[in-house]
Amino acid sequence: MSATTPGAGGPWANILEVATAIVSTMSWEETLNKIAEKMGSAMFAWSAGINSFDQERRLVTYEAYWCEGGSTEEDLAYIGNISSLDDRTDFKPIIEGRELVEWHVDDPGLSESDRELMKRWGLKSSLDAPLIYNDEVIGSAQIQETRYARKFTPIERSIFVQLCELASIGVHNAQENRARLETERRFAALAELGARLGAAQSPGEVATAVTAVVGSALPGSRVELGASAPQIGEAVVRRLGDTDLGEAAGPLPEEGAAVRLLVPVSLRGEPRALLSVSWVDAQRRVTEPEIEFARLVAAQVALGLGQEGFGGATA
After folding, report:
1. 200-314 belongs to which CATH class?
2. Which residues of the chain have pLDDT under 70?
3. What b/e readout covers 194-222, taking b as 16+ CB neighbours within 10 angstroms?
């Protein structure tokens, strides 16, 4: 069998393998890694990868990778890397132009920056395509070759497009499943917080309960319950790169943090405390469900603190 002729059982067998991965009940990471593996194997490629795309913030995140020869530590370390679409000329025709793009390291028309990127990873050829769901680009997929300069045939390109159509369903389903699990985790955290606040005997115990529960519901965050900030009337998100928006916008993140969610804790309109959740990742997006979760936490905390003073705690 030719190394460039995909499919021991024909193209439908390859597509079926990707479809099987899509309907699995694996985690987000496992699902995307399995889809990358099946796509790469189906196309007899050396490696395959999947990116997600945040349309609102124009960010591309490298989510999954598979390699016929096994993944190196450098390969695995790159998973989770976030790039701005505005800084990545190689992604623009795929994400914005919705094009099927074939790259070769020796292409005369390849930009020097893209050529250097291919050389960095030892790539001789790659085939990239957008992942589109409900007419929205939600990411991209690529197969890559390091062993030789591979010219993809029209049949191979057609099969890859079909695989990407299926993969887009898999990525969307994985995103929906991850969102559902995160919602369930936050509801469980609110229930746990309610029970712990009911047993709290002091403001210090209230703060300890809040920092522990919120920290577990929002992994990777630092949680603080501190003195009230009267100038903050509603939940705000501040970033280190923000310009000064005035006192009403709340303080910028402190040293060691890049993104900060601030939520006032008030009882009958009177400020009682300030809930702060911060992250070190400068590109961390604070979602609306996370903000609403923090608001619900603040409402519970206000009742737990009542009219008493406040001690403060962090996690």
Report:
1. alpha beta
2. 1-26, 228-230, 241, 243-255, 306-315
3. eebbeebeebebbbbbbbbbbbebbeebb
